[in-house]
Design a protein that fits this description.
It contains three helices and no strands. By secondary structure, the chain is mainly α. It is elongated and about 60 Å long.
Length: 72
Amino acid sequence: MNLDSIFHIPLSFIWKFAPCRWTPYGNTKCIICKQQVHQDGKYCHTCAYSKGVCAMCGKQVLDTKLYKQSNV
């Protein structure tokens, strides 16, 4: 069974005009540690967790004042 016959649109046409696809090794880097981020975000997972911010948008989502965190 061919997928072209199911959708009645050639797949080459769909992939040609598809929006930007997810790239696991993109050019986006973390603002703090300059490590590559796998999504189009601002912070890597480690820095976002330690700062208590959203990794994608950078908004404060957690108050980490009373947390005992280390960099190790």
